[in-house]
Design goal:
The protein is an alpha/beta fold and 295 residues long. It has ten helices and eight strands. It has one domain: Thiamin diphosphate (ThDP)-binding fold, Pyr/PP domains (Rossmann fold). Bound molecules: thiamine diphosphate.
């Protein structure tokens, strides 16, 4: 991370836009927005020193509730556009924000390959366990049997255990936090941005309008800070176990981190010793001769 700090006394309002938030009262996106601004400020990053990429969805509307370099992409595609940006210019920290609908259905392939490629981005999953913006359809993370707008008698499809799925891909950083604990979310986001490689941050979010099962009160009662209880985040097997088993309590905090993680670009032999960035190497190429072959 290029962490040059900017002027003294910078504050979260440096990131604040004048646009009104239109999320429902009690929406977990408010907590995520607050924690993101705090984390960036505490990391010493000015709005022009970081790239924020947003998927389509309720959470994606965060893109005009903040200042800074923001890119609001297509539904399910935020991980691919963020990964491309991080490859083009590795000097700028890149954060990607996506919903569970987007990233475990439309864009699940991008998630798989970003984890295994270990692209150097922070991915924040706004996990409200439903498709919020399109009014409460069941997503792949909605528990089977829940009554949703697409399934008034209860969803009949199997639920993806997202943590088991992600751990099966051999990630280098996995964290979980919840929208009611802004301090913890801030610390988790800071650790994620500082990680070298793909950081997976699952934010369990209250969605009072459509998610009647994992409410703010439910999450408040079930979530515990695994790091405060001495969890060893370098132990992959233990991390996977506490991440997957949420039957009694839900472990939050940095659950797994491989501190020896080598991100994708640093693994590429052909890039070793090269000082320029891919973004500097773009040039205009005359393809007129090539086109003649096809005309
Ligand atoms: C490829 C594609 N599929 C579907 C849609 C319609 N769509 C827009 S937002 C949305 C729901 C978003 O749900 P999620 O990704 O979980 O984010 P949330 O709104 O819950 O934050 C859907 C289905 C779309 N715009 N593009």
């Amino acid at each position: 991370m290029n962490s040059s700090s900017f002027k003294d006394g910078h504050v979260t309002s440096d990131y604040s836009s004048d646009n009104l938030c239109t999320w429902c009262d009690g929406c977990g996106n408010y907590g995520a927005l607050g924690a993101t601004k705090r984390a960036l400020v505490e990391l010493g990053l000015a709005p022009h020193q970081v790239l924020l990429c947003f998927d389509v969805g309720c959470h994606g509307n965060m893109s005009d509730k903040m200042l800074g370099y923001r890119f609001h992409g297509l539904h399910g595609r935020v991980i691919s556009l963020a990964s491309g940006a991080a490859l083009a210019n590795p000097d700028i920290p890149v954060l990607a924000f996506g919903g569970d609908g987007a990233c475990f259905s439309e864009g699940v392939g991008h998630l798989v390959h970003a984890v295994r490629s270990n692209y150097n981005i922070t991915f924040v999953l706004h996990n409200n366990a439903n498709y919020g913006l399109t009014t409460g359809q069941a997503s792949a993370l909605t528990p089977r049997g829940e009554k949703m707008n697409t399934a008034p008698q209860g969803s009949v499809e199997e639920t993806i255990n997202s943590m088991d799925f992600v751990f099966s891909l051999k990630p280098t950083f996995v964290a979980r936090t919840f929208s009611g604990d802004i301090r913890q979310m801030t610390d988790v986001l800071k650790a994620a941005v500082n990680h070298r490689g793909f950081s997976y941050v699952d934010v369990l979010q209250a969605c009072p309008t459509y998610n009647k099962f994992a409410t703010h009160e439910y999450l408040l009662e079930k979530c515990y800070d695994a790091n405060a209880e001495g969890h060893d985040s370098s132990n992959f097997e233990v991390a996977r176990k506490i991440a997957v088993d949420t039957s009694e309590r839900i472990a939050t905090g940095v659950l797994y981190q491989n501190k020896e993680s080598v991100p994708f670009l640093d693994r590429i032999e052909a890039r070793k010793g090269i000082k320029t960035r891919l973004v500097d190497e773009v040039e205009t190429v005359d393809v007129s001769e090539l086109i003649k072959i096809f005309t």
